[in-house]
Amino acid sequence: MFSKILVANRGEIAVRVIRACQELGIRTVAVYSTRDRDGEAVRLADESVHIGPAPSRRSYLNAAAVLEAAKRTGAQAVHPGYGFLSEDPDFAEACAGEGLVFIGPPAAAMQRLGGKISARALMAEAGLPLLPGGLDAMGPAEAQTLAGSIGYPVILKPSAGGGGKGMTVVRDPADFLAAYARAQATARMLFGDGRVYVEKFLYPARHVEVQILCDGHGGAIHLGARDCTMQRRHQKLVEETPVPGLPADLIDRIGDAAVRGAQVAGYVGAGTFEFLVAPDQSFAFMEVNCRIQVEHPVTEMVTGIDLVQAQVRIAAGEPLGFGQDDVKLRGAAIECRINAEDPTRDFAPSPGRVEEFRPPAGPFVRVDTHVRAGDRIPPDYDSLMAKLVVWAPDRDAAIARMRRALAEFRVSGAGLRTTTGFLRDLVDTPAFRQVTHHITYVDEYLGQAGRTESTGSGATSEVA
Ligand code: ADP
């Protein structure tokens, strides 16, 4: 086992990783930008190293600075968290080049699965069902012909995309070529890679994803599925497990497909296979996230398995030590993402000073956060302040507990707005309670479905 790990991230996930290491008896090194100098990760870690100014590309995305910090402090491994360098195969290779263990899948597996186009092609080979669409980058005319044969609406997705950004739904064939050109330009701007592919836009659909764990000794299992259907503009708001309202044998088949896909890709570590499920209960592979996922705590709550510790153990070469049949799911867990955003102003980021911060407590309530009263929510990074996770013996009790905990959550500060009130209403909607929601439900609930917006904003755009 390692004796010292560098945590190459910030915010709640840096804190989460540090806690896992502490429980394993591993010393930790936090890295921080000037903005995060007084952050919770710095306070909790054994050592910390300043790696640059506030902008991510000069700090948390600065691979050379992170590697230098690891060498200087004598860390043996690097945990990248999510976002930033976590899915960059070059960074994984650079770690190996410096004799450091990258806590994530092998660079080769990341390479195969990181680009959505190559992942689709590989998963088609593995026999996973896919939505009709492209398996290769193509020029506008060819893509248009493909869209015509798939049938509208179609969705244009950046191959290098992530975070629900830069996707475009095209409903009218007459808009296709202009939308394609715009989508390529946006993909280039957001991800430095202009490759875009066309896929059938499924409506109404549910987002179901499978948590997998693979060790380096051939052990490959899944830890059940999460439902992340409650989204706003393709960004997840509420996540839960087990997946409600779908038959157990369907979830088993989706889980088995994910494990098969992971084995074909030579995957090692924790990862997430994402699928869309249609109303007729057919399912299609969407993409793989080669890292720990924001919503991993719901899986931890029902399985009792600490996923971050599992990542560390696997990276240290340990076998899983248990098989698929040992994974028992108990009860129901729900997570709400508490963002510093103003729901009354189209969820505009609401950075500012936190004067009061009193997270809820009580039985079966977990809050993953890096925020303390007196902090400033910086404008430089994402707006996630906390993840509120609850467990209960069944889903209705979990919803009641989530509503209680959200009501108890006290966050205030001059000009600071959060999504707690909005989420409390959302988990009380008949659609959520009765599981009739779908991935654009919130946009419709807010009266924003089908709106046209600038692709440059990075959000999903709709071409009516
Ligand atoms: P990202 O990596 O940017 O998060 P994903 O491929 O995971 O992109 O898709 C994000 C979300 O976009 C999904 O959860 C779903 O809501 C929506 N989406 C993606 N592909 C489709 C599709 N073919 N049809 C309908 N919705 C889709």
Do you know the CATH topology of the largest domain? D-amino Acid Aminotransferase, Chain A, domain 1
Could you tell me the strand content as a percent range?
25-35%
Q: What's the architecture of the largest domain, going by CATH?
A: 2-Layer Sandwich
The profile of the biggest β sheet is: 8 strands, antiparallel
Q: How many helices?
A: 15
CATH level-4 homologous superfamily of the largest domain: ATP-grasp fold, B domain
- Described by the principal axes of the CA atoms, the overall outline is globular
Radius of gyration: 21 Å
Instruction: Outline the low-pLDDT stretches.
Output: 451-464
Spatial order of the strands forming the largest sheet: 13-12-9-10-11-14-21-19
Mean pLDDT: 94
Category by helix and strand content: alpha+beta
The number of domains:
3
The small-molecule ligands in this entry are: adenosine-5'-diphosphate
Helix share bin? 25-40%
Output the CATH class name of the largest domain. Alpha Beta
Distance between the termini: 54 Å
Please provide the count of β strands.
23
Structural account:
It is a single chain. The chain has about 475 residues and is α+β, with helices and mostly antiparallel strands. The protein has three domains: about 5-105, Rossmann fold, CATH 3.40.50.20; about 130-200, 2-Layer Sandwich (Dna Ligase, domain 1), CATH 3.30.1490; about 205-455, D-amino Acid Aminotransferase, Chain A, domain 1. About 30% of the residues lie in helices and about 25% in strands. The protein is built from 15 helices and 23 strands. The longest helix is centred in the middle third of the chain and has 18 residues, at about 250-265. The radius of gyration is 21 Å and the shape is globular. Adenosine-5'-diphosphate binds next to strand 6, strand 8, strand 12 and strand 13.
